[in-house]
Amino acid sequence: MPIVKIEMWNGRTSDQKAQLAKEITDSFERLGTARDATIVVFNDVSKDNWAQGGTLASES
Predict the structure, then answer these.
(1) CA angle 2-39-58, nearest 5°?
(2) Where are the alpha helices (DSSP H) in 1-60?
(3) What is the Cα–Cα distance from 32 to 27, expressed in whole angstroms?
(4) Residue 2 annotated in active site
């Protein structure tokens, strides 16, 4: 059973997340995994809690 964890900035709509979950699930199904065995977990992260290159995303 694959568990796919996605961390991304806040702001995606429920429809966008649903589409992404469907596409990921479709991909695993093409590889032979049953649809109901694929789990997708979204973790929305505030730009205040995300840094790259030593700079908070909220500052760029």
Answers:
(1) 105
(2) 14-30
(3) 9
(4) yes
* pTM of the entire predicted model: 0.86
The residue among 29, 4, 30 whose CA lies nearest residue 17 is 4
Q: pLDDT tens-digit profile of 13-55?
A: 999 999 999 999 999 999 999 999 999 999 999 999 999 999 9
Q: What's the farthest any 2 CA atoms get from each other in the chain?
A: 43
How far is the first Cα of the chain from the last one, in angstroms, to the nearest whole number? Answer: 38
Q: Of 54, 26, 56, give the one whose Cα is nearest residue 40.
A: 26
Active-site entry in 2, 34, 35, 55: 2
Question: What does residue 41 show for φ and ψ, rounded to 5 degrees?
Answer: -120, 125
